[in-house]
Amino acid sequence: MNNLKNFVVLGAAFLTLSACSLAPFPEFDDDDYSLVSDSENATYEGQENKKKADAPEKAAPAKTKPVIVADDLDDEPEKAGEKVVAKTEEVKKEIEPKLQPTSVENAIPSVTYLVATIYFNNGSAAVDSSYNKQLRDIVKLAKSKNATLNVFGYASSRTRNTDIVSHKMANFKVSAERAENVANALRRAGMPASKIKVEALSDSNPAYLEVMPEGERLNRRAEVYISY
Q1: Is 125 within 8 Å of 181 (Cβ atoms)?
Q2: Are 195 and 149 in contact (CB under 8 A)?
Q3: Which residue has the higher pLDDT, 194 or 66?
Q4: Has residue 119 been placed in a domain?
Q5: What confidence tens digit (pLDDT) does each residue in 68-105 have?
Q6: CATH classification of the domain holding 140
Q7: pLDDT digits over 105-127, tens only?
Q8: Cα–Cα distances in Å, from 197 out to 85, 124, 135, 153, 154?
Q9: Is 96 domain-assigned?
Q10: What integer is the mean pLDDT of 179-203?
Q11: How many domains, in total, are found in the chain?
Q12: Looking at the domain assignment, is residue 11 inside a domain?
């Protein structure tokens, strides 16, 4: 029985091999299926790819972020540019006035000091001619420094036996006349009137005690201050 099964298996195998040997094989054309090398990229043992060796390696372009020129990122480029221009103009308006030099006329004086004291006779407001040279020198100095002159007129506190109202009125009047006469002398010496300021202070600021006649004489005065 076993011999019969073995005979059947061998017979089937024989028939299969016979069928394969009788099947026709396709014919190939050597020209159509010849091996062709890639001359540009071919690499052989012991030989480097000449093209790759000769060609310099190109660096990748740097990646940069665009500069943001507007506060609102959703704006279109044109609107963003308009915003930047407007903001720049606004900042310039705030800064430019601070950068402008202060004019000489409006500048606050950095130096002020007493340059002359003019004394007067009792009850008089006339400027003695002995002060003429001193006043000319003051004008020359003031012009060289583009300065202003302040003239303050004073009076002594004594007006004999007068009531308080008459006393104050007389002293104020004579102090104003003394200051104005000194200012007139400065103008005659060449000082512009716009550069001279006059103020009458009566007997409000005595320089000396008037217990002696000399103290009273020294309070009858006008003081000239220079500022630049």
Answers
A1: yes
A2: yes
A3: 194
A4: yes
A5: 544 554 555 566 566 666 666 776 666 565 555 555 55
A6: 3.30.1330.60
A7: 556 768 999 999 999 999 999 99
A8: 48, 21, 15, 11, 15
A9: no
A10: 97
A11: 1
A12: no
Residue with tokens 């320089």: 207
Q: What is the pTM of this model?
A: 0.54
Could you tell me which of 192, 220, 225, 193 has the C-alpha nearest to residue 207?
Answer: 220
> How far is Cα 62 from Cα 170, in angstroms, rounded to an integer?
91
Long-range contacts of 33-42 (CB under 8 A, 24+ apart): none
pLDDT tens digits along 142-182: 999 999 999 999 999 876 677 888 888 999 999 999 999 99
What are the helix (H) ranges across the chain?
2-22, 50-54, 77-99, 132-144, 164-188, 213-219
Residue 160 belongs to what domain range?
A: 112-227
Place of tokens 């006329």: 105
Residue 114 dihedral angles phi and psi, to the nearest 5°: -80, 125
- The half-sphere exposure of 190 on its side-chain side, counting CA atoms within 13 A, is 13
- Cα 71 to the chain's mean position, in Å? 23
**Residue 83, domain member (yes or no):** no
Q: From CA 179, how far away is CA 185, in angstroms rounded?
A: 10
CB 156 within 8 A of CB 220: yes
